Amino acid sequence: MVGNHTMSLPRISATVLTLDEERNIARCLGSLTWADEIVVVDAGSTDRTVQIARQFTERIVHHPWPGFLAQRRFSFDLCREDWIMFLDADEWVPPELGAEIRQAICAGTGQSAFWISRRNWFIDRWMDHVWAPDLLLRVFRKGAASLEGNEPHIHVKLNPGFLAGTLSHQLLHQAYHSIADLCSKAGRYSDQFAESDATDSLYSPAKLVLSPLVSMLKLYIWKRGFLEGAHGLVVAWISAHYHFLKYAKKWEKLRRKGARAVRELPAVAEQKEGHGR
User: Fold this and answer.
1) What are the CA-CA distances from residue 55 to residues 16, 46, 48 (Å)?
2) CA separation for the pair 192, 210 (Å, rounded)
3) Judging by beta carbons within 10 Å of its beta carbon (0-12, 13-18, 19+), is residue 130 exposed, middle or buried?
4) How do residues 204-225 score in pLDDT, each as one tens digit?
5) 31 and 154 inside one domain
6) 28/165 same-domain check
7) Which residues lie closer than 8 Å to 115 by C-beta, 6 or more apart?
8) Which domain holds residue 48?
9) 7 is a domain residue
10) What's the first-to-final CA gap in the chain, in angstroms?
11) Which of 199, 204, 232, 237 has the most neighbouring CB atoms within 10 Å?
């Protein structure tokens, strides 16, 4: 008699990091109901984020913010299924993409991760030039990918020996509600870059001058941001400003560190002179 064994289908965990995301979280989690598990890691929201999230999942874990890299790793460790998809709270998965992800992980093609193109919304329109293409590795089998990068720019990288495919449907992203949002993020991210000791070696006077110019030309000319009118100009200009800010703040930090070292030298010299008498 032939056994009646049924092969179990692959299962996937979806995980989201939150901090005061009541404006976005229902749309995000509501788009993940196709996943076998939803894991929310909240860094201490003071608004209704957690209350809203409970409508979609019981797996809400409170964890103080240790930085993007550590928080994302913590969320991955909480996922119980073999496959992981991760989102930001201001992103959402259209039904067609959810169905495609399901089909892809069940297809048995030997691919252990999948690239997804993200479409970004700014104020009142989709930005299909200045922020495109925006390919992200967002779905992977455990062990097939790992996190890397310097704060605040963290990304997932495919591990050696694994294959990745590319999905056809797009992930949607409410990138910024306003210019104020964009400027605020530029300020926060430039602070994080400047304060991190791990990025000290990335500074050079040339980058302070050239990085903003390259960013502006890349987004506005090479990526044809000019086709998006004032929206493209604003994004390219603020991106250039961000690149200037992060290296200017890093320059300031290194100057202060150098000044402290110089101030300590006379005291050391006096001690040596005292021992020589």
Assistant:
1) 15, 17, 12
2) 21
3) buried
4) 999 999 999 999 999 999 999 9
5) yes
6) yes
7) 135, 136, 137, 138, 164, 165, 166, 167
8) 12-175
9) no
10) 99
11) 232
